[in-house]
Amino acid sequence: MNLKHDEEIVLNDESIEAGIVKILSAGIAISVLLVLIGAAIYLGRHGLEIFSQGGVPNEQETLSDLSSVIKSVLSMHGRGIIQLGLFALILTPIARVVFSVCSFVQRRDWTYVIITSIALAVLCYGLLGA
């Protein structure tokens, strides 16, 4: 495909749909893979531990923010890798909306840019602000 400098690629509905499907499929596949790897590591290290008084073994580790999750992943802790998989799963629909906003901007469909930008703002607020 030879494009001149002045020509631009305009996305049609089918290519946008295909891009969305790829984003969602990749996000889910990455999430599942990370959770399975993390579960295998966790069970390999702690699978034979006995629960005492209703507590989960190694429960003291807090993984509520991204920096602690990354530290845990770099240390190859199973719970951290599982948590990273869950973060990837949460970010998948956000990536889909970002892709949609970019596609609508490229198509200059300003009504949908506004609508999907509002949806993106609500998603980000729910993730970060709530």
Share of helical residues: over 70%
Strand content: under 5%
Largest sheet: none
Number of strands: 0
Low-confidence stretches: none
Output the helix-strand order.
HHHH
Category from helices, strands and their pairing: mainly alpha
| Count of DSSP H/I helices | 4
Rg measurement, Å: 20 Å
Distance between the termini: 46 Å
What's the rounded overall pLDDT mean?
84
**Overall domain count:** 1
Outline type: elongated
Describe it.
- The protein has about 130 residues and is mostly helical.
- The protein has one domain (about 15-45, about 60-130).
- Helices cover about 70% and strands about 0% of the residues.
- The chain has helices at about 15-45, 65-75, 80-105, 110-130.
- Helix 1 packs antiparallel against helix 3, helix 2 (about 65-75) crosses helix 3 (about 80-105) and helix 3 (about 80-105) packs antiparallel against helix 4.
- It is elongated, with a radius of gyration of 20 Å.
- The model has no long low-confidence stretch (mean pLDDT about 85).
Q: What brief labels describe this structure?
A:
single chain; 130 residues; mainly alpha; 4 helices; 72% helix; elongated
Task: Summarize, please.
This protein is mainly α. It has helices at about 15-45, 65-75, 80-105, 110-130.
